[in-house]
């Protein structure tokens, strides 16, 4: 299974900043063929990014999508529009969307289905808050997010990102043991839903991934890549992450 390293830029970078990043980043990663590299700029930079990425293997992702194809939905962007702008993937269900924009499990499910229908790959995020972890509800929360979020969703072109909310942007990473424990639970839950097709689903870890901690996290059996926020904003730092040391 090919590792997937995805940058989530969140609400950062103008068009010139996006183009400048890509110009610096592409030469650094030109010889990396065994890792799928994805960058997710804000909507406004997608088209410029896709033009700048032409001829490279680096894939483009959006950070959200709406489920309708077109019409009177002021401010929204459809799956077809993302494809048209050059996207291969879309991140759905990020905890910041869930927390600030009311993307609940049902909304997340609709968005995933619409994205798949249009032919976009999906990076589906799940994860527990600190309070949920401390009260012993981690597996309940993630189980529910997966069950409802992925209800009726195909295992094909699906990537899962486990992002403990307490580790996002806090500098507090999950330990290897904590990450592996939840990733194994996610794998088991996916197996119940998809059978052997679950073995091919990549499960990324996200939450304060850095060049310093990436090797250890990627060595965990059920960790198949990373979703990286803060440390993906500089080409050098994201390059160090995508060129992590694989165990031989
Ligand atoms: P972080 O963000 O790497 O800055 O913690 C990860 C994410 O939210 O995808």
Strand-helix topology:
Elements: E1 3-8, H1 15-29, E2 35-40, H2 46-53, E3 59-62, H3 79-84, E4 89-92, H4 95-100, H5 105-118, E5 121-126, H6 130-134, H7 138-149, E6 158-162, H8 176-194, E7 202-206, H9 214-218, E8 225-228, H10 235-242
Bound molecules: 2-phosphoglycolic acid.
Ligands: 2-phosphoglycolic acid
Tally of distinct domains: 1
Write the element-wise H/E pattern from the N-terminal end onward.
EHEHEHEHHEHHEHEHEH
CATH class: Alpha Beta
CATH architecture tag: Alpha-Beta Barrel
Structure report:
The chain is α/β, with parallel strands linked by helices and 248 residues long. The chain has a single domain, classed as TIM Barrel, CATH 3.20.20.70. Helix content is 40%, strand content 16%. An 8-stranded parallel β-barrel has the order 1-2-3-4-5-6-7-8, surrounded by 5 helices. β1, α1 and β2 (35-40) form a beta-alpha-beta unit. α1 runs parallel beside α10 and α7 (138-149) packs parallel to α8 (176-194). The longest helix is centred in the last third of the chain and has 19 residues, at 176-194. The two termini are 15 Å apart. The mean pLDDT is 97. Bound molecules: 2-phosphoglycolic acid. Residues 8, 163, 168-169, 206-209, 227-231 line the site of 2-phosphoglycolic acid.
Q: What's the gist of this structure?
A:
The chain is an alpha/beta fold.
């Amino acid at each position: 299974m090919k590792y997937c390293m995805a940058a989530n830029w969140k609400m950062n970078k103008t068009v010139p900043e996006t183009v400048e990043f890509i110009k610096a980043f592409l030469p650094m990663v030109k010889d990396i063929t065994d890792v799928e590299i994805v960058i997710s700029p804000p909507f406004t930079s997608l088209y410029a990014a896709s033009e700048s990425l032409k001829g490279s293997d680096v894939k483009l992702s959006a950070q959200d999508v709406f489920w309708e194809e077109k019409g009177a939905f002021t401010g929204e962007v459809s799956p077809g529009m993302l494809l048209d702008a050059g996207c291969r993937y879309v991140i759905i269900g990020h905890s910041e969307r869930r927390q600030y924009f009311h993307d609940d499990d049902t909304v997340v499910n609709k968005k995933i289905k619409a994205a798949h229908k249009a032919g976009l790959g999906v990076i589906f995020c799940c994860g527990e808050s600190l309070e949920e972890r401390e009260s012993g509800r981690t597996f309940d929360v993630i189980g529910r997010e997966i069950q409802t979020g992925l209800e009726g969703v195909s295992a094909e072109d699906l990537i899962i990102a486990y992002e403990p909310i307490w580790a996002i942007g806090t500098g507090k990473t999950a330990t290897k043991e904590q990450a592996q424990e939840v990733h194994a639970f996610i794998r088991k839950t996916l197996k119940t839903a998809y059978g052997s097709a679950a073995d091919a689903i990549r499960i990324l870890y996200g939450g304060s991934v850095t060049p310093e901690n990436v090797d250890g996290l990627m060595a965990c059996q059920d960790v198949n890549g990373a979703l990286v926020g803060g440390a993906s904003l500089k080409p050098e730092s994201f390059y160090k992450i995508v060129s992590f040391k694989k165990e031989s």
